[in-house]
Amino acid sequence: MILATRQTLSLTVRALLALWRQPWFVAITLVQPMIWLLLFGALFKKVVEIPGFHGGSYLHFLTPGVVVMSALFAAGWNGMGLIEAIDRGIMDRFLVTPVWRGALVGASCIHAAVVILVQTVVIILVALAAGTSFSGTSIAMMLLLPLLLGGAIAALSNAVALVTRQEESLIGIVQFVVLPASFLSSGMMASNLLPGWIHDIARFNPVNWTVTAVRSSDWSLIGAHAGYLAVLVLAAGWVATRAFRVYQRAV
Amino acid sequence: MELAIEADGLVKTYPKGVRALDGLTFSVEAGTVFGLLGPNGAGKSTTVKILTTLTAPDEGRAVVAGHDVVAEPLRVRRAIGVVGQKHGIDPEATGIENLRLQGDLYGMSRRDIRGRSQELLERFGLVDAQKRLVRTWSGGMQRKLDVALGIMHRPDVLFLDEPTTGLDPEARAEMWQEIEGLTAAEGVSVLLTTHYLEEADRLAAQLAIVDRGSIVAAGTPDELKSELRGDTLLVELGASVNGRAVEALRNVDGVREPSMEGRVLRARADEGARAIPTVLALLESEGIPVVAATVSRPSLDDVYLRHAGRTFEEADQ
Q: Is B216 within 8 Å of chain A by CB?
């Protein structure tokens, strides 16, 4: 157990050092959130005037949506690092050491969490600079809950990477999943104004669990959704660990 | 006799139906360098993948450092070091970071990691480069780091999968020296795979020739070569002449096993120097033009030809 923790930390350090040496990578991942936040936010500014919207500014409403959607993207791409490690032979070197498979997945998830945290801080700062304000609880939820969603998605992205072993496949799958998952939620539009069928689907959408929990001040709802997300993290982690078997059967 | 590796009847078929291993059996004595020699695609790398627990065999059984690779993979992993065919180094990290991570994965103590890293960096002449990102290193230096990573935790059995493929001649010669020193310095048993005949000849105490997923010959390099009596005759002809040249040679005293491949006529002779004039005269009387003729002592190339039924270069396409 101690060794497994140490393996996880060392692998995390490896991933974070690589990230530190490529700061432009984080910068690039911030371009899209800025477009959503500033352009989309400006374009649909008047949306809040629709009856049924709870008023306030659209930017204030949209920010948690952008935070969660960006977390989803960042985590989705996490498997790319793993494919790179496979292509370079690094993965095969790791797999013939006594490394715990969970440590490899765990390090990827922590790496994703750090990227998401940096993104979220920048998005919140930009939103604040644009004149929005958030409660302390709201900021705390924006910082914490996307990490759970990101952890789960990063683990699944790793699983896909291990099974497909191809960047093209991972890119395809991420794009197929991430945008629809964002739109089938209340990320951009008030929950009670969603079309009925989207509203129904959203109830089972982890993105929606995260967004509604971040916006909520109802602790029982926040607790329940955080619980769902935690279960999802564990399930995804298990799937990713199993995916190593599929990979090892194919090499 | 203590065995470092026992492979018994290994079979592995890949999803596309490629039978990579077809009942491969061999064993490696502890403390020696054992060479698996064969052309690309013979099954060498698949053998290494199975023995290092990276993938499982469909049939057969393998014991490495006293542990079954399928039943006790974790124990095998603790006992082995692997230098894969592909680089296993992280180019986006420094040399020392690569070594430190490797030590962490094996659970070595911090102090041991520090000491062992410096020891290996010194041995491989990498001290000055240790804090630079590995992607800025030369190919030879990167390969040395690969080997250093493989022996970082002082394994009992070391796998070197084509360690000098892609290196320039100078770097290859250096790497050979390092490998020769390994068994003495580390007391490690080594399984070396290679498709360079001279590499196997120079480094391996015991040798097995792999072809199409099974062992076709085994022994020391000298044993294998002495199975071939006499010298090798190679006669390059000016034109392809089908079977005529081979037929002509069948009746020459002291000349055996004539064969033709492209424009090269090949045969074995008890005494090459004596046979050459006879052979040349015979070819001339048959009207077959000769471009060049050589006599050489038997090489592993000849051993390969004898057991696999084709020359090494031909198989290595």
A: no
A194, A65 in Cβ contact below 8 A?
A: no
ipTM for this prediction? 0.90
Q: Are B35 and B206 in contact (CB under 8 A)?
A: yes
- Binned at pLDDT 50, 70 and 90, residue B3 comes out as very high
Residue A154 burial (10 A CB sphere; 0-12, 13-18, 19+): buried
Residues from chain A contacting residue B87 (CB–CB below 8 Å):
88-89
Enumerate the domain spans of chain B: 3-221, 229-297
Query: Which chain B residues have a beta carbon less than 8 Å from that of A248?
Result: 54-56
C-beta separation of B176 from B203 below 8 A: yes
**Chain-centre distance for alpha carbon A200:** 22
Average pLDDT over residues A4-11: 96
pLDDT in tens, B28-49: 999 999 999 888 888 999 999 9
Q: What percent of chain B has a predicted confidence (pLDDT) above 70? A: 98
Q: Are A93 and B82 a contacting pair, CB within 8 Å?
A: yes
Residues 6+ apart with CB under 8 A from B221: B200, B201, B204, B207, B300
For Cα atoms A193, A117, A29, give the angle at the middle one, nearest 5 degrees. Answer: 80
Q: Is A183 exposed, middle or buried (0-12, 13-18, 19+ CB in 10 A)?
A: middle
- Under 8 Å between Cβ of B237 and B288: yes
For A64-82, the pLDDT digits (tens) are 999 999 999 999 999 999 9
Using DSSP bridges, classify how beta strands B231-237 and B290-296 pair: parallel, antiparallel or unpaired. Answer: antiparallel
Q: How far off is chain A from B197, nearest CA to CA, in Å?
A: 25
- Among B77, B91, B92, select the one facing A98 at the smallest CB separation: B77
Burial of residue A89 (number of CB atoms within 10 Å: 0-12, 13-18, 19+): middle
pLDDT for position B101: 97
Domain that holds residue A139: 2-250
List A residues 6-25 in contact with B (Cβ-Cβ < 8 A): 6-7, 9-11, 13-14, 17-18, 21-22
Q: pTM score, two decimals?
A: 0.86
The tens digit of pLDDT for each residue in B100-129 reads 999 999 999 999 999 999 999 999 999 999
Residues in chain B: 317
Q: Chain A within 8 Å of B74 (Cβ-Cβ)?
A: yes
Number of domains into which chain A is organized: 1
Please tell us whether the domain made up of B3-221 is placed in CATH 3.90.380.10. no
Inter-axis angle of helices A136-164 and A206-215, nearest 10? 170
Question: CATH for B229-297?
Answer: 3.30.70.980
